[in-house]
């Protein structure tokens, strides 16, 4: 058993080998980091039209992700609201009823913030369309 542990400790304990392994891993991670955006776009948008640049592809991805987030947040807000209302109506303890109504307020405030960000961006973005510098 002792022979196995000493055989594994010998090679990677040398400082030069440790440094080389770290540099190799950093290079691999940087390569993966910078190659992913290039390989992510296939030349067409979700609608089938040709992409103009990486910024348009990024905008399409952000819109798609935000639409999924807004859909999921709406469904979860409705579900959690139903749970909070049922909990408030079926509870005999006033403290639990107050807590349920507080949770209901928090749920709808969070939902309004999540969907308000999208509405704000949809309203403000056209105002800045002529100001691009690249």
Features:
single chain; 134 residues; mainly alpha; 2 domains
Brief synopsis:
The chain is built from four helices and no strands. With 134 residues, the chain is mostly helical.
Give the amount of beta strand, in percent. under 5%
Helical proportion, percent range: over 70%
Rg from Cα: 26 Å
Q: Secondary-structure element order, as H and E?
A: HHHH
| Mean residue pLDDT | 78
Task: Describe the global form.
Answer: flat
Number of helices: 4
Let me know the largest β-sheet.
none
How far apart are the termini? 64 Å
Strands, total number: 0
List low-pLDDT spans: 1-7
Task: Describe the 3D structure.
The chain is mostly helical. The protein folds into 2 domains: 1-40; 50-134. It is 78% helix and 0% strand. The protein has 4 helices and no strands. The protein has helices spanning 2-12, 15-40, 54-90, 94-124. Helix 3 (54-90) runs antiparallel to helix 4. The termini are far apart. The model is unreliable at 1-7 (pLDDT under 50).
Helix and strand arrangement:
Elements: H1 2-12, H2 15-40, H3 54-90, H4 94-124
């Amino acid at each position: 058993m002792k022979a196995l542990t000493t055989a594994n400790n010998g090679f990677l304990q040398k400082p030069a080998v440790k440094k080389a392994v770290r540099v190799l891993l950093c290079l691999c991670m940087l390569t993966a980091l910078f190659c992913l955006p290039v390989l992510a776009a296939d030349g067409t948008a979700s609608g089938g039209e040709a992409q103009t640049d990486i910024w348009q592809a990024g905008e399409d991805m952000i819109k798609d992700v935000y639409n999924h987030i807004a859909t999921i947040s709406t469904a979860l807000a409705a579900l959690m609201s139903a749970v909070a209302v049922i909990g408030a109506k079926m509870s005999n303890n006033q403290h639990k009823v107050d807590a349920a109504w507080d949770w209901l307020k928090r749920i709808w405030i969070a939902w309004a913030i999540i969907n308000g960000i999208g509405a704000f961006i949809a309203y403000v973005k056209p105002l800045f369309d002529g100001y691009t510098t690249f």
